[in-house]
Structure formats: C-alpha cells, structure tokens
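I have been asked to look over a protein record a colleague put together. This is what I was given:
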Amino acid sequence: MRGPYKKKTKEKIMSAAWELFQDNGYEETTISQIIAKSGTSRSVFYHHFHGKEELLFTVAYTYDNDYDIWLQEYYDKEKHTVDNLISFNGYVMRAVEESPFHSFYPSLYGLQVMTEGVRHILNPDRRYYQILRQLLKEGSEAGEIVSVHSYPVLTDMIASFQIGLTYNWCLQQGHYSLLQYGQELLNPFLESLRAVDEG
C-alpha cells in the first residue's frame, strides 16, 4: 500500500508543478504554490524532491509516455531495424519540437548542467533508452546492424546526437524545424549502420 501511495503523491506534485509552470512560468512559480495546488505539505514535497529545479527535470519522463505510444503503434517487427530507428528518431524529434513544454528547455538544459543532482535526461532506466537499446540489440543480433561499436555504445551515441541537436535548437531559439534538421543530420548515421546484403 505504501509504494503505490508514494508514487501517486509524487505524480500529484509533478502534475501540479507542470500546470503552474505552464500558467505562470518556471521562474514565477514558487514551491509554496506547488504544495498548495498539489494538496500536500512541505515535508511531503521535500521527501520527494530537493527543490523546484528537480521538478523541471522530470519533463524527460513525460516524453517517455509518448515513446511507449511509438512502440505500440509504429514499431513494426517486419521492418528492418534501421527503418525502425529512423522512424523512432523522427518521432522523438517531433515530440520535442511540438511539446507544450518547449519554452522550458533553456532553463532545463542550463540547470541540468549546473546541478549536482541526478541527470534525469541521461537516466538509463528511462523508456527512451530502453527502447533504443532494444532496437539496437535486436538489430545487432539479427545481423541487420553492423558496427565496430556495441549496442549500448550506439545507444549512447544516438542519444548524444539527439540531445546535442535539441540543445542547439534551443540556442537558436527554435528558428528552424528540429524534426527536419534532426532527420537530415542523424538519419545518414543510422543508415550507415545498415548491414549490406551481399546476397
């Protein structure tokens, strides 16, 4: 009983915080407002989060729900692994570009670099990383992907590309399509992993 209750309370705080961030802006939202809106207490808040900035970092997990949708609706076992990787890359870039939270990215990236806490964006247990690892592992085992790198290393490389692309997009203040640019830069790398059919 205690486990599910804790999870429910944490999600309640996150939901309240993100509503306030969208309505008031991140800087203008206070911890007291988050506590009041979530119907919790200060001690409960600090039991789950070190501060307001940690709530900002949890945006990474909101995308993971979208990535599960990709896995359920767009992943095709009959397709070549590289084609599924290209599809996933496009889905990720589109989700980031069209997210209602994109105005918070500059604060998110800046604080994530400076903080001493957990790097949620890099959490290997996120569904994003799990899906990438699954695709690359299956592709490697099926002989559809050929690389001098192992599938865990390829996972980190692709994630680094996508994080870098998103960060640059933030620096450029979203003046171009992240989806289009991301496909132009990353898809050729993904294609380079495709095993050549010698038959």
